[in-house]
Design brief:
The protein has about 140 residues and is mainly α. It has helices at about 10-45, 45-50, 70-100, 110-130, 130-140. Helix 1 (about 10-45) packs across helix 3 (about 70-100). The longest helix is centred in the middle third of the chain and has 33 residues, at about 70-100. The N and C termini lie far apart (about 65 Å). About 20% of the residues are buried.
Length: about 140
């Protein structure tokens, strides 16, 4: 019997949940950013005019605000993920670094790189969200 240390198998559920949460919150941020920039470009206005209330983010939903409209549900999911990303960005990054540090030997290189890239991306998005140019976007979306 060997006494050599063996790497324990990592929890695939935890890794999958972390990767999914990170990519979903980053994706929601990018979707809101694209909606903000697209709305500004199509209206031909600047960031200050976007905050006047004349360019509400709910106006970009095609077919109105009816409960059976699938675009409304997509808008709601993106909105909730955007807000969750603001709250969970730092805890997700901390949990990811802890999992990568604990399971360093057991995690495949690609999975480890994906987790760390998601953590760094989540932190960059969190910092970018509260910079002055994107703070206007944040206010516009939460209006």
């Amino acid at each position: 019997m060997s006494i050599a240390a063996q790497a324990t198998p990592y929890s695939r559920r935890v890794v999958r949940a972390l990767v999914t949460a990170q990519l979903a919150t980053i994706g929601a941020f990018l979707a809101v950013l694209l909606l903000y920039l697209g709305r500004m470009a199509t209206a031909g206005v600047g960031p200050a005019e976007m905050l006047t209330g004349a360019y509400d983010p709910k106006d970009v939903i095609p077919f109105g605000m009816d409960g059976v409209n699938p675009f409304l549900w997509l808008y709601a999911v993106v909105g909730m993920l955007y807000v969750a990303g603001a709250v969970l960005g730092l805890p997700l990054a901390i949990a990811t670094v802890a999992v990568v540090a604990r399971e360093r030997e057991a995690l495949p290189r690609v999975t480890r790189a994906l987790l760390l890239t998601g953590a760094v991306g989540g932190l960059l998005v969190l910092v970018a969200r509260f910079t002055p140019p994107l703070l206007d976007m944040h206010s516009w979306w939460l209006d």
